[in-house]
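Blackboard transcription, Thursday session:
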Amino acid sequence: MMILEAKSVSYYYKSNKEALILDDVNYGFDCGKMYAILGPSGAGKTTLLSLLAGLDVPVKGQILYDGKPLTSKGLTTHRKYHSSLVFQNYNLIDYLTPIENVKLGGKGNPETLLGTIGIGKEFWKRNVLQLSGGQQQRVAIARALASEAKLLLVDEPTGNLDDATAWDVIDLLKRIAHEENKCVIVVTHNKELAKEADAVIRMETHT
Ligand code: ADP
Ligand code: ADP
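(Written on the board underneath:)
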């Protein structure tokens, strides 16, 4: 069974009801796979991701987790235990070290997680701002992994990274999907990187 589904989902922002951002869309997501949500800026990728993460609710239609529709009561549980979201700007706590940031994610051993994502020991106790963009992105992913949630939702993980580092991050996310049986959903506007995904969802600008 699909772990996450969007069923007949429509969405507009309350501040601009004229602009239908999502128009009756249907998507399904499995564990053990990496999905890319691909499309130009303004297509609604971030909007879809925030609905899947339970940060907001569809105007019409439903988001289902493990076959059950998310109700407004269930949103907190969904955000806390089912999904972990990696923001575009990393949202790391800038006066803390990588170890301390990953600890904030919840369970798991920060050292193991930082090892998994390939951050060398010598960086673990530095201030995160002394790390490169690629390293900060990976620390943010490690923090999301600490939650043990099935869903790993990642917004433009490679936007600020050079090509080689972007490939490393995408390969890392794919490995996490396959080896840890997570459902990884990555928003990107990079067609080449999207080809690495097990499935691609294409979104077009329609406003
Ligand atoms: P991206 O395309 O990289 O997802 P955007 O530039 O579309 O980022 O949006 C950046 C932030 O501004 C997001 O938090 C988004 O919700 C907000 N935003 C974008 N467009 C509008 C808008 N028309 N009115 C209010 N907030 C907006
Ligand atoms: P993408 O992530 O594909 O760049 P977004 O989901 O950020 O697209 O935005 C889709 C559309 O919704 C854009 O036209 C954007 O301007 C609009 N939008 C985004 N956030 C808001 C917001 N908070 N209020 C009003 N409009 C928004």
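Lecturer's comment: The two ends are 34 Å apart (CA to CA).
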